[in-house]
Amino acid sequence: MITSSSIYRLVLAITLSSLYAFSQVNAPPKLRAGFKLPPNFAVKAAKYMHERIRVTGFSGAVLVAHDDRPVFREGYGLANHEFNVPNTPKTKFRLGSLGKQFTAAAILLLEERGKLKVADPVTKYLSDWPKAWDEVTIHHLLSHTGGLPRLTTQVLLDVSGLSRATLASFRSIRDLHKPGEELQPLDFKPGEKFAYNNNGYIVLGMVIEKASGKPYCEFMREEVFRPLSMTDTGCEEPSMILKQRASGYTRIDGIVANAGYVDMRFPGGAGAIFSTVDDLLVWDRILTSDRLLSAGARAKLFRVRLF
To answer: What is the pLDDT of residue 33?
Structure first.
């Protein structure tokens, strides 16, 4: 999704904040006032997309907005190859790590409600947090600067390898490591450097549950997506019937094949969310409004340091 009214903000909000909540730059500038789309923009965009499909085999949905209104909105390729179902702008896709920005926003929402502080140590909310990692704060997890060591348990494996019969998702920090791994020292002093870490956002999902008293997906649905009328966004669970869901595919030697099974309960706060391009446009608007977070809280999404 690209919004031409605020392209720089979009790149950070949808890309960088999905990687870490506190970006290395301040809130980005908007495009100049009175910015106008090129003549015949939709025609040129369609031509570009057809070339994109020809060269790369792109399959998905595209939405371009100007002044918060869609000016180009199309689906390409197939959402389901077995039944020849095409992608449309209403197709629901897994966001993967793009969903991390929603987890970050939920943490800031809880901070505004007085349920936590991002400067708090993680151990304040998770009693079984390893003693060797006591210095790590919520902010460190948000910004991928906690220095969490590499763990050898299934959380670091490709979750597509997990069995459909697996029932219990990660409920505790103990589920993320083997006995004895909690004694490992941090890879570096918290705040010293950036190192992308999915585990940190799984843990943030646990913090949200502890601080809110609700399961992660329930909190996201009731406190974030529903109030914002993001009706086509939520957490995916194996048993749910999700209309207009895109099936997962990969390419093997250039041939489209079914992707391996993934139980989305396991990524949790690190990537369990699905959405549509229409709902992502709603979210883009939220990033410049007070409907969910105050201006001060939203500014934290684009700031590398707490103070």
So the answer is: 58
CB of 82 closer than 8 Å to CB of 94: no
Residue that has been written with the tokens 């595919």 in this structure: 249
Crossing angle of helices 100-112 and 198-212, in 10° steps, is 30
C-alpha torsion sign, points 21, 19, 28, 62: negative
Give yes or no for residue 108 having a pLDDT over 90: yes
DSSP-H helix ranges across the chain: 7-10, 17-19, 41-56, 100-112, 138-142, 198-212, 216-219, 277-286, 295-300
The residue assigned the tokens 């970006």 is 23
More confident call, 153 vs 206: 206
Q: How far apart are CA 304 and CA 20, in angstroms?
A: 9
Lowest mean pLDDT among 38-52, 121-135, 167-181: 167-181
Tell me which residue of 248, 2, 223, 220 sits closest to 101, measured CA to CA: 220
Rg for the chain (alpha carbons), in Å? Answer: 20
Give the number of other Cβ atoms within 10 Å of residue 51's Cβ: 11
Are the CB atoms for 260 and 158 separated by under 8 Å? yes
